[in-house]
Amino acid sequence: MSEIKTVLVTGGMGYIGSHTVIALIEQGYQPIIVDDLANSSPEVLNRLKIITGKDIPFFKGNVCDKAFLEKIFSSHKIDAVIHFAGFKAVGESVEKPLEYYRNNLDSTLTLLEVMTEKGVKNIIFSSSATVYGTPVHVPLTEEDPIGTATNPYGTTKIMQEKIFTDYAFVHKDFNIALLRYFNPIGAHPSGLIGEAPYGTPNNLMPYITQVAVGKLPRLTVFGNDYPTPDGTCIRDYIHVCDLADGHVLALKKLAQNPGLVIYNLGTGKGTSVMELIHAYEKATGVKIPYVIAARRPGDVAENYAGTLKAEKELGFKAKRTIFDSCADSNRWQQKNPKGYN
Ligand code: WQD
After folding, report:
1. Ligand 1 centre distance from Cα of residue 325 (Å)
2. Taking burial as the number of CB atoms within 10 A of a residue's CB, which of 65, 181, 268, 329 is the most buried?
3. Closest by alpha carbon to 295, among 231, 235, 208?
4. Is the peptide bond before 139 cis (omega within 30 degrees of 0)?
5. First-to-last CA distance in the chain?
6. In this predicted structure, what is the pLDDT of residue 329?
7. What residues pair up with 124 in beta bridges, in sequence order?
8. According to the model, what pLDDT value does residue 28 have?
């Protein structure tokens, strides 16, 4: 068993990162946040202080900057890293492939180099169900093959998993957890932190919450002619606080020196777009006007997680319901109609 106490959280000011920082503190860990604020707001630190009562060490900088990272590792005894930092907008990655490959791959390569120099051997990587590509069947399990992504963002996730896998092959003393998230939604029940995409949201839930607060007039449903019960796409929507809890369980797993491990983090249940709209209206009492439009290129009909391995080996099971997610997302957006600005 290795003792893990101090955890470096790259991208810890982001949506999933900030929720994970809260879970770490609640479970007795000491997080240190590194974030370049390219896709997050410094206000998140104030909100984390209100929620946790703690002053969390935060260092502004880019994980690709080796000198910056070396300084952090030299001035703190870091036991493990959770690596969230990276660009993550599917559409943007198609427009800016070089920035995505440079940023997402360089950050991981630099991090592994510095961890090795400093003798830090435990890391959790924020991966994604997107690595499976177009599912050949559902539910998707960790034994299913890695597919080909339909966009550079997804390809960087596949490539980063390969970097970790090849590294673990020669560095048997490294403990690496690849966590494949399905569709994170929801927010901390305080309503103080949540998903705050810049510009018009690409993802379904933040689009719905902006319709709910009147920032956007209506939702456009991308296709209702899929081979699913109501014709709209099915996804595995997992509450971000369940996702955060899953990271703490993965940290406990790394302390057992497992080497490289891979887990899906999902609920194991599929929810269609129409079902999510209705759940939101039921959970919040807010009507969500929508129109049906053509399919969005690249969307798959159905995608949800096989959860047995995470349940058996991590003791992970999503606890919050789709209604909890809708109510929590709504509370966040109602309290922060302009996000963190
Ligand atoms: C869900 C469903 C849309 C918006 C993406 C990334 C994936 C991961 C999670 C990072 C689809 C429909 C959406 C809208 C709609 N991100 N939709 N109207 O595409 O499953 O996954 O986010 O790892 O990599 O690809 O999530 O929320 O974009 O879409 O009808 O305005 O909602 O067609 O069926 P997706 P999503």
Report:
1. 16
2. 329
3. 231
4. yes
5. 44
6. 98
7. 82, 177
8. 98
> Ligand 1, from 140, 151, 208, 222: best to mutate by most atoms within 8 Å of Cβ?
222
Residue of the CA atom closest to atom 7 of ligand 1: 130
Question: Mutation test of ligand 1: which of 151, 183, 226, 238 has the most ligand atoms closer than 8 Å to its C-beta?
Answer: 183
List of the chain residues with pLDDT < 50:
none
CA distance 128 to 107: 17
Looking at residue 153, its amino acid is Y
| pLDDT score of 150 | 87
CA-234 nearest atom, ligand 1: 34
- Residues annotated catalytic, as ranges: 153
Ligand 1, residues at Cβ distance < 6 Å: 88, 90, 128, 130, 183, 202-204, 207, 219-222, 233, 235, 273, 296, 299
Long-range contacts of 253-258 (CB under 8 A, 24+ apart): 253/177, 253/313, 253/314, 254/2, 254/4, 254/80, 254/122, 254/123, 254/124, 254/175, 254/176, 254/177, 255/1, 255/2, 255/3, 255/4, 255/122, 256/1, 257/1, 257/2, 257/175, 258/175, 258/177
224 in Cβ contact with 142 (< 8 Å): no
What the chain holds in terms of domains, given with CATH numbers, is: 6-187+237-266 (3.40.50.720)
Q: For residues 263 and 250, is the Cβ–Cβ distance under 8 A?
A: yes
Phi, psi torsion values for 178, nearest 5 degrees: -95, 115
Instruction: Identify each DSSP E strand in the chain by its residue range.
Output: 6-10, 30-35, 58-60, 80-83, 122-128, 175-181, 183-185, 219-222, 234-235, 237-239, 260-265, 271-272, 290-293
Could you count the other beta carbons within 10 Å of the beta carbon of residue 227?
7
